[in-house]
From TrEMBL:
Annotated active site: C142, H236, E238
Lineage, highest ranks first: Bacteria, Bacillati, Bacillota, Negativicutes, Selenomonadales
Record-marked site positions (Important for acyl-CoA specificity): E111
Protein name: Homoserine O-acetyltransferase
Function noted in UniProt: Transfers an acetyl group from acetyl-CoA to L-homoserine, forming acetyl-L-homoserine.
Pathway membership: Amino-acid biosynthesis; L-methionine biosynthesis via de novo pathway; O-acetyl-L-homoserine from L-homoserine: step 1/1
Family in the record: Belongs to the MetA family.
Keywords, alphabetical: Acyltransferase, Amino-acid biosynthesis, Cytoplasm, Methionine biosynthesis, Transferase
Gene: metA
Organism of provenance: Selenomonas bovis
Length: 311
């Protein structure tokens, strides 16, 4: 089944070239199907890159998915033109009256700042509070995961002495968890961050379960409140093959002398083509979330989400 996206969204051309089935809004309205309604709060500076990464994974499913994008009204992105935002995005005020089967909160390049110092923190906090009654399942990524853990459970983040940068080996911490169904006992995921959560802080919260982790420095990877259907993912399974390369090349060009990403280039040689070790993990992760924690459980009448969640 296809993923429904706004008419003329640039990501559509890229995804169609990869044989991912997308349809625009006009065609989708002609079908008598109740699609899954997914809201994406995109906090990344260059919106279209993150859009494409997430839509690629959401579109690799037998389910029809309808996506709305929002950006923060309290901070206007500087790397994406306003006419682009006006055409393809809304604000929280424009969707706060709606209900959604699922929501994704992306990472953001603000991790070295205290949460309360982030220009749009009050708006993010309001959106996360709203999600408890208007979204059936919420999927937080990287800084979005740190923000969610802090807002909902008071778990702090800590700066690390050296950037966590590369593709790290992880292992499962629980058996038979639906979000990780089909995962190998060991699997690889990219990370790129300057901060972390401490495992001991997470273990103090009885509602949270650590689903997967890596050895240091990457640490805890997937955390969940299964009852509330909240997921917090510290890595970037959605990354494109060259995302870490682009970060490395940018910092090298700027004279920052970055470390070579771990487990990324053959023989740690940046002149060679990176090895993708996480593609299947990414598709499984998002497909499992959509199927087991959104489609299989969300009420058919979407306006019933609030009462169902309270039950």
């Amino acid at each position: 089944m296809p993923i429904k996206i706004p008419n003329a969204l640039p990501a559509a051309h890229i995804l169609e070239g990869e044989n991912i089935f997308v349809m625009d809004a006009d065609r989708a309205y002609a079908q008598d199907i109740r699609p899954l309604k997914i809201l994406i709060l995109n906090l990344m500076p260059i919106k279209y890159i993150t859009e494409t990464q997430l839509l690629r994974l959401l579109g690799n499913s037998a389910l029809q998915v309808e996506v709305d994008f929002i950006y923060t009204e309290s901070y206007t992105p500087s790397h994406t033109p306003m006419d682009y935002l006006a055409q393809f995005y809304g604000t929280f005020d424009e969707v706060r009256h709606k209900k959604y089967d699922g929501m994704i909160i992306t990472g953001a390049p603000v991790e070295n700042m205290a949460f309360e110092e982030v220009a749009y923190w009050d708006e993010i906090a309001e959106i996360m509070e709203w999600s408890k009654s208007h979204v059936y399942s919420t999927f937080h990524i990287c800084w979005g995961a740190q923000a969610g853990l802090y807002y909902h459970y008071g778990i702090p983040k800590y700066e690390v002495p050296e950037k966590i940068f590369g593709v790290f080996k992880h292992h499962l911490c629980v058996e038979h968890e639906k979000l990780l169904r089909g995962f190998d006992d060991e699997f690889y995921v990219p990370h790129s961050r300057h901060t972390e959560e401490h495992k001991e802080d997470i273990l103090k919260v009885p509602e949270l379960t650590i689903l997967a982790e890596a050895e240091q420095p990457a640490g805890v990877y997937a955390i969940a409140n299964l009852e509330k259907r909240q997921f917090f993912i510290t890595g970037h399974a959605e990354y494109d093959p060259n995302t870490l390369k682009q970060e490395y090349d940018r910092d090298e060009k700027a004279g920052l002398h970055p470390q070579i990403p771990v487990n990324y280039y053959p023989n740690d040689d940046p002149t060679q083509k990176p090895i993708v070790r996480w593609r299947s993990v990414a598709h499984l992760l998002f497909a499992n979330w959509l199927n087991y924690y959104v489609y299989q459980e969300t009420p058919y009448e979407i306006d019933a989400i609030c009462s169902d969640r309270e039950d």
